[in-house]
Design goal:
Layout lengths: L27 H22 L2 H24 L3 H7 L3 H15 L6 H31 L6 H30 L2
Helix pairs in contact: 1-2, 1-3, 2-6, 4-5, 5-6
Main location: membrane
Keywords: Membrane, Transmembrane, Transmembrane helix
Protein name: TLCD2 protein
């Protein structure tokens, strides 16, 4: 069994906090598989409908997620780890709402301001903290994770973490330090 580095147990499936490799709640494998489908569809949509210079970062992000989640789905392992990674997507709701408000030219509204605050808060909690926790878990469990999987996970975290810190800086600069 893997090292329990979670400060608290996962409420609905406590076994998950002790084993992110072989344990996952019912439906989790399907959720991660559907997420791979979503990221593939979104990847293809961006490839066909956006200019590469506008979407290369997201295409790169999606490629990393597709590879990592794809491995979890195919091996039926690390589904719990992928499930933790999906917590990041909670913030996506507010990132997408921000884009919609920008496109609707509603930047100077209370709604935009409120969303900016919630977006930043959920960004710190669900993106930065989750990625930090995942990196820590990977590091603490390096003996229990096969080298190839550890390498994929480490490279994935090494790509995602700076990308998310840069995006956080851009959001902060754009919405709070104009």
């Amino acid at each position: 069994s893997t090292h329990n580095c979670s400060p608290h147990r996962f409420y609905l499936h406590p076994g998950l906090s002790e084993d992110l490799v072989g344990t996952h709640p019912p439906g989790a494998h399907s959720l991660v598989a559907m997420s791979v489908g979503y990221f593939l569809e979104d990847f293809m949509d961006m490839l066909c409908n956006q200019k590469l210079h506008q979407s290369w970062e997201l295409l790169f992000h999606h490629s990393v997620v597709i590879v990592c989640f794809g491995i979890a789905v195919l091996l039926h392992q690390y589904v719990g780890f992928a499930l933790v990674a999906l917590l990041v997507e909670i913030n996506s709701i507010f990132l997408h709402l921000r884009q919609i408000l920008l496109m609707a030219n509603l930047v100077h509204t209370t709604c935009y301001r409120l969303n900016s605050i919630i977006n930043l808060g959920t960004y710190v909690v669900f993106r930065i903290a989750t990625l930090a926790w995942m990196t820590r878990w990977l590091f603490l469990n390096r003996e229990n994770v096969p080298l190839a999987t550890y390498a994929v996970g480490t490279v994935g975290m090494a790509i995602m973490t700076p990308m998310n810190i840069i995006l956080f800086y851009r959001l902060l600069r754009s919405d709070f330090f104009k």
